[in-house]
Design goal:
The structure is a single chain. With about 220 residues, the protein is an alpha+beta fold. It has one domain: Immunoglobulins (Immunoglobulin-like). It has 2 helices and 11 strands, in the order αβββββββββββα. The longest helix is centred in the last third of the chain and has 27 residues. The radius of gyration is 25 Å and the shape is globular. The termini are far apart.
Length: about 220
């Protein structure tokens, strides 16, 4: 019994080590950055974000593929998100190198329709082969980040491996964004029309009552 537990423990340790090697040594990387709006080169890497309604800083989620050792050609690079582990991933941004007729996303960062508040950032590395300097990200002002943006972000890369196989491959890495501090509240947006509606309704009732009770 003790031997079986020892073997099982060793197997778990080996799996963890292999997973670490795959993500740290031969896979894409995902990073969270906070930087001044007029000097993005002075950005600071962070594991989470303190929300601040008054901040003019920029918050960036960035995918890098420079550690994918078997990379030959990029097929599609995606930045994805899901709120919980029970949901499917949703594409936030992408960069593809397959359809040259698609001028919007061919070798360019492209924001997927419907993802308001973010803008796409990044670059396709046309100066190197393989294009290890390719990056894809999304960016927005810190002051607009709310608890809705918390969750798990994933970089997903579909690519072609180098010789001799030249086979199709996939690699991905995910990271959870934790948020603290004050977030933009929608309560004032929803509360004001609600109150205004009640006030307007009461005013109409008063005027109607006066009109009905008038002798003229």
């Amino acid at each position: 019994m003790k031997m079986r537990q020892t073997v099982l423990l060793h197997s778990v340790i080996i799996m963890i080590c292999l997973d670490w090697i795959n993500t740290a040594g031969n896979g894409p990387v995902i990073e969270f950055w906070r930087a001044p709006v007029h000097n993005e080169d002075q950005g600071v890497l962070t594991n989470g974000l303190v929300m601040d309604l008054t901040s003019t800083d920029l918050f960036t989620i960035l995918c890098k593929i420079k550690h994918v050792k078997t990379l030959n050609k990029v097929t599609v690079l995606r930045l994805q998100w899901r709120k919980t582990i029970y949901e499917n991933y949703t594409d936030l941004a992408m960069l593809q190198c397959v359809d040259k007729n698609n001028k919007v996303s061919y070798e360019k960062p492209f924001l997927v329709k419907g993802e308001s508040g973010w803008r796409a950032t990044g670059v396709f590395d046309s100066n190197h082969f393989p294009p290890v300097g390719t990056q894809l990200g999304i960016v927005r002002q810190v002051s607009t980040v709310s608890t809705e943006e918390s969750g798990e972000y994933r970089c997903h890369l579909a690519y072609t491996e180098g010789p001799p196989a030249y086979s199709s491959a996939k690699a991905s890495v995910s990271k959870t964004l934790t948020l603290t501090g004050s977030s933009p509240s929608s309560s004032s947006v929803t509360f004001l029309p609600h109150v205004f509606g009640h006030v307007l309704c009461n005013l109409c009732c008063i005027l109607l009552f006066k009109w009905c009770s008038s002798p003229y």
